[in-house]
Amino acid sequence: MTDSPSSPTPAADVPPLLEFASLTDTGRARHNNEDTVKLDPVLGLAVLADGMGGYNAGEVASDLAAGRVLEQLSAWLRQSPGPHDDDSIRRALAEATQQANQAVHEAAGSRAEYTGMGTTLVSALFATDSVWIAHVGDSRAYRLRGALFEQLGRDHSLLQEQIDAGLLTPEEASYSMHRNLVTRAVGVEPEVLADVHAHDLRGGDVVLLCSDGLSDMLPDVVIAQVMRSHESLEAMAQALVDAANAAGGRDNIAVVLARVRGGLTRAGRGWWPFRR
Questions:
Q1: Could you read off the pLDDT of 232-257 as tens digits, one per residue?
Q2: Which of these, 38, 64, 158, 72, lies nearest to 119 by C-alpha position?
Q3: Mind listing the pLDDT tens digit for each residue in 19-37?
Q4: pLDDT confidence of 97, banded at 50, 70, 90?
Q5: Most Cβ neighbours (<10 Å): which of 40, 160, 251, 260?
Q6: Count of domains for the chain
Q7: Per the domain annotation, does 1 fall within a domain?
Q8: Which range marks the domain in which residue 182 is found?
């Protein structure tokens, strides 16, 4: 887990076609940071988790879940370098999320101070011409492509259910008292269902993973404006955190940025290192 405040972290050994940066911050209202970011730039993996629970349980849950997902997916890619079909990728992401869920759930039962802890989770696995997203809860993935900025997937939250049912408009939801009530989280129950979905990528696309400390403080249009205003991913990450804090910083803030450089393939193969 990254302590706060921290400087944007560029990845050290980035594949030629991908670049990453990440940043976490405690925000202005919290005393500890329960957001965790884990990266394996060489394998094209990014995981972000936003923990919940008393004492230090939230940060324990997020660190444990993100670490387990990264460990599981890294092992799978190294042992089975591919190429992988859609079903195998989907199974790998779902299984890694379930392994994280089991780890957090078992830890929650091991100590009284961890009772009831859990975490949101969003994972990104970059493939040859797409990014695969697995998420549980309301931590989000976005894709910025020129003038188009869109959320990849839907929140598992009471607010999203109310919007889907037509009880609230997205504008009304931004003022709701129930902004932080998730309907699905890692570690709360013995099993969890992750939404796993693929999204195409083109050269120049930027993928953002973030906790609700960013998305609750800034509307999507502002997030997109901040991202477009900075060329380097490190500056972009810092500007997003600064903007969330300027808007109130009511929660911990975590961001991961990944940009596709130029074309997506080299000699017909993707950027996973075992297929170069």
A1: 999 999 999 999 999 999 999 999 99
A2: 64
A3: 999 999 999 999 999 999 9
A4: very high
A5: 251
A6: 1
A7: no
A8: 9-275
